[in-house]
């Protein structure tokens, strides 16, 4: 990647991506070396990326991202004012740090790509995919090693086999005496999500990278094995959904869109029902009570408990306030409810209006990318289907670092890439 004016922000973004894929290692050393400031490295780089994006794109300045920034500033200001009546300021500010920096990162990414031609974005993809897949392989090997050498891993991070928590800077969790391997990430959810992302990118990026069949089979096998060992069942289901959709689309080529739509609606309805209705828990408990309890019953209870906090139309529209529930990264009180899905996270903090807006934005992008599928060279439309139909009700993709940042990068860059390609094609036809 050439370090020249408009491409310099991309170089910063690529370096940030490399660091993101070692998030667990950085988190461990920040705690081990007792350097609290190191835990803010993500926020530091987001600010740098934002400033670099504005600085190097000044000759090709666009006012649109600033309108978005003003909109987010107004939105978060109103939410903070609303939350002051229901939550402590420290919890509100911590929640604001999480969400505001994600919004700022999205605007920074827009600046990185807005002034580029489609060919430059395509060139970035080639480097970006190599980084994701290359470091994804390291993450897979770490997951596999942690699975087979669990006791050695516990000794390395300074925990006993009975310990649970994030005292090492990485959240170590066990289920049924089995380690939920975090790989090189902060949690097993982030690690499993990264493996799913690698699977999709490996298969979809064949349009811009000419992989040999043996390489594809080998890497796909490694990613699938490590995804299984991560124990992240949601991502395993998503992998099955992805392969099913691709297979049906291939078999029924003329009705591919119809088949994808039917499958997606069925999956969406299933995940909604399994987080709101106890009948789903009773059904699956007949086959495996342990997993039915942990994967379905607890989620239903969490969702219903938060919904019980809504006592007025104001609560339904705007939420019960930032920091009232969740408090990711802070010690939770006994009366604080978990916000472990995108749906309930948005609903609790921002209400039904923001939740509906988020879901409709995902749906709009899905329709756009399927209508121009030949320009979606990295399969972002399938990632969006995953975020809306599966992850939305089961896990919180908004705070799932680093995949949240990678998804944003891919979504925004693909949106701009398709937009620029369409504009360039229309200009050629007119000429």
Largest sheet: 2 strands, antiparallel
Are there runs of 5+ residues with pLDDT below 50, and where?
none
Helical residues, percent: 55-70%
How much strand? under 5%
Content-based structural category: mainly alpha
The number of distinct helices, counting runs of at least 4 residues, comes to: 17
Radius of gyration: 22 Å
> What is the helix/strand order?
HHHHHHHEEHHHHHHHHHH
Descriptive report:
This protein is an all-alpha fold and 431 residues long. 70% of the residues lie in helices and 1% in strands. It is built from 17 helices and two strands. The protein has helices at residues 8-20, 23-32, 41-56, 64-83, 89-114, 118-148, 150-157, 188-204, 213-229, 233-251, 256-273, 278-285, 289-307, 313-318, 342-371, 380-394, 403-430, and strands at 174-175, 178-179. A two-stranded antiparallel sheet has the order 1-2. Strand 1 (174-175) and strand 2 form a beta hairpin. Helix 12 packs antiparallel against helix 13. It is globular, with a radius of gyration of 22 Å. It starts with 7 loop residues before the first helix and ends with a helix. The mean pLDDT is 84.
């Amino acid at each position: 990647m050439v370090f020249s004016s408009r491409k310099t922000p991309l170089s910063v973004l690529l370096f940030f991506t490399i660091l993101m894929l070692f998030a667990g290692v950085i988190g461990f050393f920040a705690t081990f070396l007792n350097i609290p400031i190191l835990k803010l490295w993500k926020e530091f780089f987001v600010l740098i990326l934002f400033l670099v994006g504005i600085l190097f794109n000044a000759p090709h300045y666009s006012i649109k991202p600033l309108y978005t920034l003003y909109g987010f500033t107004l939105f978060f200001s109103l939410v903070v004012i609303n939350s002051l009546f229901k939550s402590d300021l420290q919890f509100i500010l911590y929640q604001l740090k999480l969400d505001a920096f994600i919004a700022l990162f999205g605007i920074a990414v827009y600046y990185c790509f807005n002034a580029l031609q489609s060919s430059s974005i395509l060139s970035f993809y080639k480097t970006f995919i190599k980084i994701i897949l290359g470091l994804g392989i390291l993450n897979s090997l770490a997951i596999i090693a942690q699975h087979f050498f669990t006791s050695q891993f516990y000794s390395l991070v300074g925990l006993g086999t009975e310990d649970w928590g994030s005292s090492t800077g990485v959240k170590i969790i066990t289920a049924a005496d089995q380690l939920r391997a975090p790989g090189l990430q902060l949690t097993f959810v982030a690690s499993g999500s990264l493996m799913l992302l690698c699977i999709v990118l490996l298969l979809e990026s064949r349009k811009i990278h000419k992989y040999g069949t043996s390489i594809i089979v080998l890497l796909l096998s490694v990613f699938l094995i490590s995804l299984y060992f991560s124990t992240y069942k949601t991502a395993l289901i998503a992998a099955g959904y992805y392969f099913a959709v691709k297979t049906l689309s291939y078999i029924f080529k003329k009705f591919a869109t119809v088949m994808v739509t039917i499958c997606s609606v069925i999956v969406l309805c299933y995940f909604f029902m399994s987080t709101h209705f106890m009948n789903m828990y009773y059904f699956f408990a007949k086959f495996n009570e342990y997993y039915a309890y942990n994967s379905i019953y607890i989620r239903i209870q969490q969702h219903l408990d938060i919904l019980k906090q809504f006592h007025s139309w104001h609560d339904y529209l705007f939420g019960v306030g930032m920091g009232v529930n969740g408090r990711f990264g802070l010690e939770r009180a006994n009366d604080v409810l978990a916000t472990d899905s995108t749906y309930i996270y948005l609903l609790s903090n921002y209400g039904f209006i923001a939740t509906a807006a988020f879901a409709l934005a995902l749906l709009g992008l899905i329709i756009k990318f399927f209508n121009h599928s030949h320009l979606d060279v990295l399969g972002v439309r399938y990632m969006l289907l995953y975020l809306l139909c599966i992850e939305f009700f089961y896990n919180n993709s908004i705070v799932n670092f680093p995949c949240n940042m990678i998804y944003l990068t891919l979504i925004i860059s693909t949106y701009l890439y398709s937009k620029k390609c369409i504009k360039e094609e229309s200009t050629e036809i007119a000429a």
